[in-house]
Amino acid sequence: MKKILITGALGQLGSEIAAELRSRFGVDKVVLTDRRDDVNTDLVEEGPFYRFDVRHGEELAAVVRRYRIDTIYHLAALLSATAENDPQTAWDLNLNGLMTVLEVAREERCAVFTPSSIGAFGPSTPRDWTPQDTIQRPTSMYGVTKVAGELLCDYYYHKYGVDTRGVRYPGLISNRTLPGGGTTDYAVDVYYQAVRRGRYSCFLKGDTYLDMMYMPDAVRAAVDLMEADPARLRHRNAFNVTAMSFCPEEQAAYIRRYIPDFEIDYHVDPVRQAIANSWPNNLEDYAARVEWDWEPRFDLDTMTRDMLRVLSRRLEDARYVWSDEG
Ligand code: NAD
Ligand code: SER
Questions:
Q1: Which atom in ligand 2 lies closest to the alpha carbon of residue 81?
Q2: Which pTM was predicted?
Q3: Which residues pair with 128 in a beta bridge?
Q4: What is the per-residue pLDDT across 106-143, written as a single tens digit (0 to 9) for each?
Q5: d(CA 290, CA 286)
Q6: Among this protein's residues, is 160 annotated catalytic?
């Protein structure tokens, strides 16, 4: 019987994984934790929720023991842009938070899912069709913590037998919870602004290619990997996964299929542009496809269509009206 705990459960990824796991396994089987409780209050009120800092191992261990948790989805972390503004906190949270979770998992015999990122690659990595096993010399603090995290998870698997698994997510695009300070946040914000104002000012250059994924695919990747037959897994931490690669100009062109007068301009943020320039244009995710049958379902067109449909119906100040014939 699955008993699951999620750290960082109210964030962009956590809120959607929480909803999926609660609908799949039952609300009382999925315990949510975060250091805040003032967002996604529906999730907080619906079932077990505990507010604490993930680096506080005693609090984490107490909840794991109380609910006999067997699987932890560890999602509490600082994203790339926030991390670059405060690298010391990023190191502390992203690595000491992970270490705390792995120690509790070792003692309480839990499996652990930890997301890595395209940020685990750097400027000396091959930029196109970036392989699973390749050079990883990132230049951002976020990337440093992600590479170290991948290695730490490998270490706990080999040394202690902790069932650690992870994916290298690309930029995640969703319409439930806003992203939390990443370099790829523009690719979410552009849909909100397109629906509200019909225009967007982008902080990356128009020809900056990055990998991206729509949230339903990202949630499925995490859950499928944790359900995969361990005998088939050669990589564990962490699998390249991707669904699409595009630049802001291309995303704008797809938005114009539905909002023809949509306009985009560019006010480049040098910090986030430098981070994006150091990341791959597009990943190769063959190992995930072979070892646990990974396959994305959304591309840029189907994601754009769904984002605009959902946001135009939900945002109270939406100017764009979705037409089912559109
Ligand atoms: P997010 O910023 O939206 O959510 C992180 C959550 O962690 C927040 O709810 C925050 O309150 C919580 N948190 C922060 N510090 C904490 C602490 N000290 N103790 C407890 N909780 C704390 O981030 P996300 O986008 O949901 O990312 C989740 C994971 O996925 C991270 O490891 C991130 O690196 C990875 N990832 C995300 C993306 C993306 O595009 N969103 C891409 C690649 C990898
Ligand atoms: N979307 C994430 C970020 O930009 C990638 O890990 O930080």
A1: 7
A2: 0.98
A3: 282
A4: 999 999 999 999 999 999 999 999 999 999 999 999 99
A5: 6
A6: no
